């Protein structure tokens, strides 16, 4: 069934609200290009909206009661926010879950080297990327360097107008005949994604250092600006991302072009919906924003960790009603929107989509009953009754929505965190924004879809 373009129903007030949200979303993208930066901004906005640290509240001996707004953070990369409702927690929660990691290039632990008077940083790509898309772009470096004395240095290069940018070279077209015969996956090899970081040699070096004079100059700059030594790369988390701010896209300014919209477009709209819950809800609302989805939701900050389960246990303990059974019931009786992006239909690549079951820009939030690959491998296939419930909620609140699957059968596929949450027995469905050029350095979304996602998440927290 074809869905109407959401723009056609907007009045002036709707468009004003949409533009306000789109501007706030672009600001969020500009402030958070790494998971740590995202969590820092999330905490800042949450505290401004009246949330307080769960651990700090419990340490003061204050119990948890209906109406309380609390958050908890794991390793500065995963965060859960709870707005405690009137019903006992064992009856379940209404959960919005998105991920805040995005495809990128990570700096290796022993990265810095010099070759023929040029200095480079060695990288290892993170998540699913088309490697050829990352060359000849202005790049920025974000992250932290942890030193042996316990101090942590924040690093950000390439975003300020006065900053230099970093760069990955490509072979000139005049000499690229053999390169252009390669498959797209092999045109740029992973080990060739090295970051050009300097070319000026340091003068007056002792003889044993002169062969690495450019490298030595880079180390001198890093030490002067950040107080770090070459050995400190061993305990650093430095990410290479596209330089530049999120921008409006199209002559009509109807879209947003930016890095990291998979999945920060769903993370931000989920957060915005959560922070606008002012009244004490009947059912506890939760916004869970996780790391590591792009590499399988692994590790201590991914959805496969016990972070969320432990957070629910702490919340129940603060209510003085903890038991293992209460935790199990709270999780089992919950309902979740796995807020992750969907592949937007692109007429330039129409052969990859089945038009009746594709997601279109401007037609609202997307429901993916299932994802996965081939025969739905790796998918959570939402039960029909739950899909009907979500449809009713969206219709009751005039939310524009559409349904889709991720491209044609056997063309590829992908997954989300939905199947992991479903292991608890809770109801889960994927629900997010359609994206063009997903996983590229610059992705495109529709402002209308961003707005409809925000409306959908607000409706879900209210009525799920």
UniProtKB/TrEMBL annotation:
Transmembrane segments: none annotated. Pfam families: Peptidase_M18. InterPro entries: Peptidase_M18 (IPR001948), Peptidase_M18_dom2 (IPR023358). Its EC number is 3.4.11.-. Keywords: Aminopeptidase, Hydrolase, Metal-binding, Metalloprotease, Protease, Zinc. Its cofactor is Zn(2+). It comes from the Bacteria. GO terms for molecular function: aminopeptidase activity. Belongs to the peptidase M18 family. This is M18 family aminopeptidase.
């Amino acid at each position: 069934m074809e869905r109407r373009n959401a723009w056609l129903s907007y009045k002036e007030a709707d468009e004003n609200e949409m533009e306000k949200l789109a501007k706030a979303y672009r600001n969020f993208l500009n402030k958070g290009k790494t998971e740590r930066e995202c969590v820092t901004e999330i905490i800042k906005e949450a505290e401004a909206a009246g949330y307080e640290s769960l651990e700090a509240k419990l340490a003061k001996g204050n119990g948890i009661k209906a109406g309380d707004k609390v958050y908890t953070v794991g390793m500065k990369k995963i965060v859960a926010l709870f707005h405690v409702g009137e019903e006992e927690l064992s009856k379940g929660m209404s959960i919005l879950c998105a991920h805040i990691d995005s495809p990128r290039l990570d700096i290796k632990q022993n990265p810095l080297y010099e070759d023929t008077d040029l200095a480079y940083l060695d990288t290892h790509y993170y998540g699913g990327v088309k490697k050829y898309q990352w060359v000849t772009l202005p790049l920025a470096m974000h992250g932290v360097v942890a030193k042996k004395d316990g101090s942590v240095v924040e690093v950000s290069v390439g975003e300020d107008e006065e900053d230099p940018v970093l760069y990955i070279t490509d072979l000139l077209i005049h000499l690229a005949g053999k390169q252009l015969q390669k498959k797209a996956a092999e045109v740029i090899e992973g080990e060739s994604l090295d970051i050009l970081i300097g070319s000026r040699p340091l003068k007056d070096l002792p003889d044993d250092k002169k062969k690495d004079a450019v490298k030595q100059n880079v180390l001198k700059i890093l030490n002067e600006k950040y107080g770090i030594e070459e050995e400190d790369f061993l305990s650093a988390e430095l990410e290479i991302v596209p330089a530049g701010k999120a921008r409006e896209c199209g002559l009509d300014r109807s879209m947003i072009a930016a890095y990291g919209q998979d999945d920060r477009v769903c993370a931000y709209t989920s957060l915005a919906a959560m922070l606008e819950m002012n009244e004490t809800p009947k059912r506890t609302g939760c916004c869970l924003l996780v790391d590591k989805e792009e590499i399988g939701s692994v590790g201590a900050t991914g959805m496969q960790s016990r972070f969320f389960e432990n957070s629910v246990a702490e919340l129940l303990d603060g209510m003085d009603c903890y038991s293992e059974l209460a935790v199990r019931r709270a999780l089992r009786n919950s309902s979740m929107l796995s807020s992750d992006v969907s592949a937007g239909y692109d007429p330039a690549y129409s052969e990859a989509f089945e038009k009746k079951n594709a997601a279109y820009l401007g037609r609202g939030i997307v429901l993916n009953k299932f994802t996965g690959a081939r025969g739905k491998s790796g998918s959570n296939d939402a039960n029909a009754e739950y899909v009907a419930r979500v449809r009713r909620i969206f219709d009751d609140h005039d939310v524009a929505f559409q349904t889709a699957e991720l491209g044609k059968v056997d063309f590829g596929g992908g997954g989300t965190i939905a199947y992991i949450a479903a292991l608890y027995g809770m109801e889960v469905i994927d629900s997010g924004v359609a994206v063009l050029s997903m996983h590229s350095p610059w992705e495109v979304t529709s402002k209308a879809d961003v707005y409809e996602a925000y409306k959908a998440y607000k409706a879900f927290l209210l009525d799920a």
